[in-house]
Amino acid sequence: MSFSIGLTGLTQSGKSTLFQSLTSISRSDTSGKRLPLARVPVPDDRLWKLAAIFKPKKTTPATVDFLDMPGGGSAGLGAAALADIRTSTVLVEVVRCFAHPYLEGIHPRADMESFETELLLADLKVIEGKLERSKKMPPEEKALLESLQGPLGDGDVNRLPSLDEEQHKLLSGLGLLCLKPRLAVANIPEADLGGESAGFQEVRDFAASRQMPALAICAEIEAQIAELPEEDQAVFMQELGIASSGLEQLIHQCYARLGLQTFFTTGEDECRAWTTRIGAHAPEAAGEIHTDLQRGFIRAEVIDYPTFMECGSMNVAKEKGLLRVEGKEYVVRDGDMLNIRFNV
Ligand SMILES: Nc1nc2c(ncn2[C@@H]2O[C@H](COP(=O)(O)OP(=O)(O)O)[C@@H](O)[C@H]2O)c(=O)[nH]1
Ligand SMILES: [Mg+2]
C-alpha cells in the first residue's frame, strides 16, 4: 500500500520551504524520481515508550511520503505538473499569508479560489476528453462522469455527488483531483505565531466551506526548527510561544486524511510502528509487514497499547490472560500490538 502527500498550491506560497523542513527530519530520496520525495517518520510517543520497555536493537517509526509539487499560478498548471499532482493520494494546499518581496498584497481566499478553479478545470478537461473518446462506455460509467461534469463546470465542489467504493474504483484510473482529500495549510508570517492570524482565519473559513481541515504553519520558522539539534528545538519553540512544531500537526492531519492507523510489532530485535488502513482485517495488516504473513496468516496475538502499558510486560499480560488470540476476521484498531502467526 503506498500513499503520498503532495504539497500543492500557487507558486511562491512556500511549498518548497515547507518541503525543505520536512526533509531535514527525514530520509529524502530523489534518485530515479521525477519529484523530490521526503519519507517522513510519523511522530508517535507510544513507540518510544514501548522501546523503553523492550529495549530492542532497532526502533522504527511508521513513515509517510511527501512530494514537492510544481505550483499553479498566472501561467496555470501545465500538463506535466498536473500529471504529477494526480499521483498523490492527498493534496496539501499551501496558501501564502505572508508578505512576499515581489508579489502584491496578501489574499488567501482569492488564491484558494483560483487554485481550486485550476484543479476543477483540469478535471473537467479529463472528463470531457474521456466522454468524447470512449463512445461505447458502460452506461453507469457514463452517467457517473456526467454527474461530475455539471458541478465541475459551475466550479461548485459542494455539489459533487458523494461516491461509493464501487464508483471510486470506476474512476480511479483518471486520478481526478476533485475526489482527492485536501488539507489547507496557511503559511503565516512569524509575527502571527502563537496568536491571532487574520490570514489563517481567512484560510480556515474558506477551507470550512469545502469541508477541508486547515492548520497554520510558518514555513520559514519550521525550516529553522528542523535544522536545530533536537534538544534545542523545544527551547526555541517556547521562545516563539508555540506548543509543538507545525510539521508534527501536519503529519498527523495528513495521516488522518489518508484514513490510516498505526499498529505495533515488538520484540528484542525491533520495535516498529506500521501503517494500515482504518478498517483493515488482521491479514491485511499483516501484509504490510510481509506478503508471506498475509498469505500464510493463521492467527494474531493481540493486545492494545494502553492495556499492555498497564501490565508493563508481555509475561504479565499473558499471565492475566489479556493477550487475545484473533482470527482472520479481526478488525485491527489503532494502537494494537500484533504478533502474527503464519505458515507458508
Ligand atoms: N516571510 C516568509 N517568507 C516565506 C515563508 N515561506 C516561504 N517564504 C519565501 O517565499 C518564497 C517562495 O517560497 P517557496 O518555498 O520557494 O515557494 P513555492 O513556489 O511554493 O515552492 C521564498 O523566497 C521563500 O523564502 C514564510 O513562512 N515567511
Ligand atoms: Mg517550489
CATH superfamily of the largest domain: P-loop containing nucleotide triphosphate hydrolases
CATH topology of the largest domain: Rossmann fold
- Overall geometry comes to globular
DSSP E strands, number: 13
Mean pLDDT: 91
From the alpha carbons, calculate the radius of gyration and give it in angstroms.
Answer: 22 Å
Uncertain stretches: none
CATH architecture of the largest domain: 3-Layer(aba) Sandwich
> Describe the biggest sheet?
7 strands, mixed
Sum up the structure in keywords:
13 strands, 344 residues, Ubiquitin-like (UB roll), binds magnesium ion, binds guanosine-5'-diphosphate, alpha/beta, Rossmann fold, three-stranded mixed sheet, 14 helices, 2 domains, seven-stranded mixed sheet, globular
Task: Give a written overview of the molecule.
The protein has 14 helices and 13 strands. It has helices at 15-23, 45-54, 79-86, 108-133, 139-154, 165-171, 198-208, 219-227, 230-240, 246-257, 282-289, 291-295, 305-311, 314-319; strands spanning 4-8, 27-29, 37-41, 58-60, 63-68, 90-96, 182-187, 214-217, 260-265, 270-277, 297-304, 324-326, 336-342. α1 runs parallel beside α8 and α4 runs antiparallel to α5. It is globular. With 344 residues, it is of the alpha/beta class. The longest helix is centred in the middle third of the chain and has 26 residues, at 108-133. Bound molecules: guanosine-5'-diphosphate (GDP) and magnesium ion (MG).
